[in-house]
């Protein structure tokens, strides 16, 4: 009944006509007139809640609804269509398109008169659609085409019902738009399909009309449309709702300029647009939005509107209907004059269709929170702030701007501005405060307030407070969200339970970042579900992806809050164990790929819901080890702290040799020290001795001979005490290595032979035996006994081939190349060295560096100085990766000699000086003395080298060359 009265608002409707609408085909109740009276009472009771309710009059069996027709969707729709036609006649397609878009998007929703059935209502719906809706769509598409909005034309046609979009008018619009965007092949295909359809449906007239239209499009010259000027709009009350500007605002110039750009047309006039300014809690989104809004306010003649949507604060978020009422009121229109939300939205859109207005919608919870509201703000520049990215608005053309944390320079400038002389007096403390805040504007603001209230307290004291309790900053401030912890808590509460669990457990993550596979282990759930949760936290700026799509990082303050949460739960230990187990098993998979010939390590049982990473080849395995290096170290340290001794003990076993090969020997040394302490804590003597031995090997690689020998002796004492002959033999081998590298080659050979003899008496140690043979070959070569060296190489090759030890085979081939080099057999040497490099590739940095160095020596001996330089530079690269300082000095000497022979004398002197600095630093006095003699010879032989250049080289401080 109310629908019919609204349709005929202000006009009398007889009882018989109402009965015909409401109860067709004899379905009326026994007393339909009495039923109408009852309905009138119910409707009137419902309308009475409005401030100025419409009235329903009954007189002489006739009903009349007394209401402003403009407040009814259908009649407002017709008025909009009339206004649009008038605008089009005046050439104002911009206004026409805006008005019609509001009409078809907001006012005409769903099926008209949906509660009425029967032929009469169906006929009316058909009439309304054909005479009002379709012409409105047609006019809208015409205006959009005139404005060159062809992609919008295609989008709108695609959203229409099938029977509407296949009408001749809509087919023509789509065909024209396809031509306009140069999709000519799509246009031809679309024309052919529609032409065939029309002919098959026996509509030859439409088919012929479409063919003629297509032919015109194909031959028509494409000329730009003339620029049209919008007609003036009726004036409304100009609102100024912006809150006060941020007085202490500083920095963010790039973001402010970006906002200027995206809200401006080419001629500098304000553009209708939607900008989503998103960022993590406390980063300063509202401050930036309001500061920019005040700066830009004069550009918007339609005024400024503002509403805090409370998407993340205490209480319920502000709903869209409340915002519409607030904005209508600000524009001078009493909202209670229009009962429906759709009508109010249409009115708001109409009032804002004049001069461009600026709208700031602060703290939107998600896209749905504002989607409908934005439809009636289409003529405005809208700035949305949210902790979410609001990706759902991208389809409507919203521009996203991510507000990152303040840069260090911005934070320093901001703090200096408000602390003044105190910052000047304590520059180090001021810098520390900026760094501890990590770019979170809220934290900086609280620190300033904190220091202002305590003017005599040193800034250094605030630094200590910030370090110990950073989340407590501002806990005593007034109002919700005033402290760092409160701001983070609001974001946390807005997450669903799965997202909250991920956020909490991120506090159990020892590393600075995490990938999907590791996060899956941390949570104990499958990777697809984990990735969904991770991406959800990215969308709300609680995680970032600064490096790649597969890695996630959490800001330090957020991690502290997450750690607080997880430490209060019963999930922490289980999550830490799952993560440690994940890295142990994944690292073990790396070890099995890189060193397939070596015996595997006995691992603890795989924890439930942990899926380690598998690797297809050695390259992928090593890349994983490089990328996860920091996280593995962090997990080791956390496991040691938390008493997960099994993982502390096993992880160095499976990743240690890989890290040494990659040049991370310091990491391995630190891990082994932790493993020694864990073994002592659980009373495992064998593991303690093994880690001492491995640590000796690592310190040997850094040429720390005293430390290496100390750990070898410690290992041997324990192995003898527990009666482990294999362990004793291996410590003899380590002792041999130390003596050889220290220059005591004879003693090194003595211990090496003792170790080999012991190993040959044992079973299942062929891998270690083969390596011992290779190292004895190296020792004999250094001692000048090349025959013995070659003999041990042959034995080592035979063993390596028997057990399939490809890596050791590569090392032995390299050693044979060096033996032939010392014999002056350059062709044979080059062949062995080339085969060695083919096997070793870029792995085993120290060994590969020595092979490249030997190649350089061959080239130099053959007077191939450019090739010698190239090989020596390759050697230098690998020695740097392995942190082999003394070997770096040797490679630099070769480079210097090679470039000197190429008449690049100044460069040669510079390179010798670099080699000399390294040799002096690492205590290679004999090498340093030879370099000094060579420099003296060069200064005599090449007097044209500028004296001031060599002087400066002698005086230049050397930095970054040693550990």
Describe the structure in your own words.
The protein is mainly α and 963 residues long. Among the domains are: 2-67, Winged helix-like DNA-binding domain superfamily/Winged helix DNA-binding domain (Arc Repressor Mutant, subunit A); 253-402, P-loop containing nucleotide triphosphate hydrolases (Rossmann fold, 3-Layer(aba) Sandwich), CATH 3.40.50; 408-485; 867-955. Helix content is 64%, strand content 5%. It contains 45 helices and 10 strands. The protein has a 5-stranded parallel beta sheet with strand order 5-6-7-4-8, with helices on both faces. A 3-stranded antiparallel beta sheet has the order 1-3-2. Helix 16 links the parallel strand 6 and strand 7. It is elongated and about 130 Å long. The protein starts with a helix and ends in an 8-residue tail after the last helix. Mean pLDDT is 83; it is low at 221-235, 477-481 and 946-963.
The CATH architecture of the domain at 253-402 can be named as 3-Layer(aba) Sandwich
Percent range for β-strand residues: under 5%
**Mean pLDDT over all positions:** 83
Q: How many DSSP-defined strands? A: 10
* Low-pLDDT residue intervals, each spanning 5 or more residues: 221-235, 477-481, 946-963
CATH fourth-tier homologous superfamily of the domain at 253-402: P-loop containing nucleotide triphosphate hydrolases
CATH topology of the domain at 253-402: Rossmann fold
User: What is the CATH C-level name of the domain at 253-402?
Assistant: Alpha Beta
Distance between the termini: 89 Å
- Structural class given helices, strands, pairing? mainly alpha
Tell me about the biggest sheet?
5 strands, parallel
Q: Report helical residue fraction.
A: 55-70%
Measured on Cα atoms, how large is the radius of gyration?
A: 40 Å
Strand order of the largest sheet: 5-6-7-4-8
Number of helices: 45
């Amino acid at each position: 009944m109310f629908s019919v009265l609204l349709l005929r608002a202000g006009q009398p409707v007889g009882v018989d006509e109402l009965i015909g609408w409401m109860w067709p085909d004899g379905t009326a109740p026994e007393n339909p007139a009495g039923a109408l009276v009852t309905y009138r009472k119910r409707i009137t009771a419902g309308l009475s809640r409005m401030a100025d309710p419409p009235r329903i009059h009954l007189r002489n069996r006739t009903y009349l609804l007394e209401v402003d027709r403009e407040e009814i969707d259908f009649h407002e729709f017709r008025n909009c269509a009339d206004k649009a036609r008038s605008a089009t006649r005046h050439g104002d397609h911009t206004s026409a398109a805006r008005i019609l878009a509001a009409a078809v998007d907001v006012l005409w929703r769903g099926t008209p008169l949906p509660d009425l059935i029967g032929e009469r209502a169906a006929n009316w719906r058909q009439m309304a659609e054909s005479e009002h809706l379709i012409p409105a769509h047609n006019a809208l598409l015409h205006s959009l085409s005139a404005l060159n909005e062809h992609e919008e034309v295609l989008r709108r046609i695609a959203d229409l019902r099938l029977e509407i979009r296949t009408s001749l008018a809509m087919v023509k619009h789509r065909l024209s738009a396809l031509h306009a965007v140069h999709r000519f092949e799509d246009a031809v295909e679309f024309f052919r399909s529609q032409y065939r359809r029309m002919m098959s449906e026996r509509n030859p007239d439409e088919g012929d009309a479409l063919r003629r239209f297509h032919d015109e499009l194909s031959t028509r010259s494409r000329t730009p449309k003339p620029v049209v000027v919008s007609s003036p709009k009726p004036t409304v009350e100009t609102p100024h709702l912006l809150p006060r500007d941020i007085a202490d605002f500083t920095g963010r110039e790039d973001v402010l300029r970006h906002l200027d750009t995206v809200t401006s047309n080419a001629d500098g006039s304000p553009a209708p647009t939607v900008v989503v300014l998103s960022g993590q809690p406390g980063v300063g989104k509202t401050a930036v939005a309001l500061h920019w809004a005040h700066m830009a306010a004069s550009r918007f003649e339609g005024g400024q509107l503002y509403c805090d949507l409370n998407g993340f604060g205490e209480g319920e978020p502000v709903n869209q209907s409340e915002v519409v009422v607030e904005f209508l009121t600000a524009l001078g229109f009493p909202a209670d004059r229009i009962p429906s939300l759709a009508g109010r939205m249409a009115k708001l859109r109409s009032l804002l269709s004049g001069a461009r207005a600026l709208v700031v919608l602060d703290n939107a919870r998600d896209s749905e929170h504002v989607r409908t509201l934005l439809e009636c703000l289409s003529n405005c520049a809208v700035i949305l702030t949210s902790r979410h990215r609001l990706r759902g608005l991208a389809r409507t053309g919203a521009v996203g701007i991510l507000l990152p944390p303040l840069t260090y320079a911005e934070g320093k400038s901001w703090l200096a501005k408000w602390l003044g002389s105190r910052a000047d007096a304590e520059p180090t403390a001021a810098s520390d405060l900026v760094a501890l805040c990590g770019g979170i504007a809220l934290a900086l603001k609280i620190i300033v307030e904190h220091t202002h209230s305590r003017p005599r307290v040193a800034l250094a004291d605030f630094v200590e407070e910030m370090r110990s309790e950073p989340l407590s900053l501002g806990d005593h401030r007034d109002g919700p969200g005033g402290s760092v912890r409160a701001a983070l808590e609001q974001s946390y509460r807005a997450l669903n339970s799965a997202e909250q669990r991920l956020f909490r457990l991120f506090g159990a993550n020892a590393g600075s970042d995490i990938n999907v596979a590791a996060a899956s282990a941390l949570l104990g759930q499958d990777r697809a579900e984990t990735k969904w949760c991770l991406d959800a936290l990215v969308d709300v700026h609680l995680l970032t992806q600064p490096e790649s799509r597969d890695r996630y990082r959490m800001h330090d303050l957020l991690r502290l809050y997450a750690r607080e949460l997880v430490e209060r739960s019963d999930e922490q230990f289980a999550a830490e164990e799952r993560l440690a187990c994940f890295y142990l098993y994944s690292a073990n998979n790396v070890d099995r790929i890189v060193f397939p010939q070596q015996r595997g390590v006995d691992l603890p049982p795989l924890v439930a819901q942990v899926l380690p990473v598998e690797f297809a080849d050695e390259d992928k395995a090593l890349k994983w080890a490089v990328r996860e290096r920091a996280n593995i170290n962090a997990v080791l340290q956390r496991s040691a702290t938390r008493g997960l001794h099994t993982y502390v003990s096993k992880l160095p076993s499976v990743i240690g040799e890989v890290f040494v090969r990659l040049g991370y020997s310091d990491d391995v040394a630190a891990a082994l020290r932790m493993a020694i302490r864990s073994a002592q804590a659980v009373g495992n003597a064998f593991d303690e001795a093994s880690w001492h031995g491995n640590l000796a090997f690592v310190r040997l690689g850094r040429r720390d001979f005293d430390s290496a020998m100390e750990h070898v002796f410690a290992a041997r004492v324990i192995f003898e005490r527990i009666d482990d002959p294999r362990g004793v033999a291996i410590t003899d081998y380590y002792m041999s290595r130390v003596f050889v590298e220290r220059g005591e080659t004879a003693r090194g050979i003595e211990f090496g032979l003792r170790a080999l003899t012991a190993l040959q008496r044992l079973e299942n140690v062929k891998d270690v035996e083969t390596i011992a043979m290779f190292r004895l070959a190296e020792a004999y070569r250094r001692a000048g006994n090349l025959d013995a060296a070659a003999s041990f190489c042959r034995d080592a090759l035979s063993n390596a081939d028997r057990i399939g030890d490809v890596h050791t085979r590569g090392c032995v081939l390299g050693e044979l190349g060096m033996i032939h080099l010392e014999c002056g057999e350059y062709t044979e040497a080059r062949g062995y060295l080339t085969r060695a490099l083919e096997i070793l590739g870029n792995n085993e940095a120290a060994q590969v560096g020595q092979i490249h160095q030997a190649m350089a020596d061959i080239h130099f001996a053959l007077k191939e100085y450019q090739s010698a330089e190239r090989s020596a530079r390759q050697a230098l690269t690998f020695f740097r990766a392995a942190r082999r300082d003394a070997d770096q000095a040797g490679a630099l000497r070769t480079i210097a000699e090679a470039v000197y022979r190429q008449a690049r004398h100044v460069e040669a002197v510079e390179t010798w000086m670099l080699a000399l600095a390294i040799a002096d630093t690492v205590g290679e006095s004999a090498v340093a003395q030879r370099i000094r003699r060579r420099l003296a010879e060069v200064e005599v032989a090449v007097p044209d080298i500028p004296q001031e250049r060599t002087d400066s080289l002698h005086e230049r401080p050397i930095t970054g060359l040693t550990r």
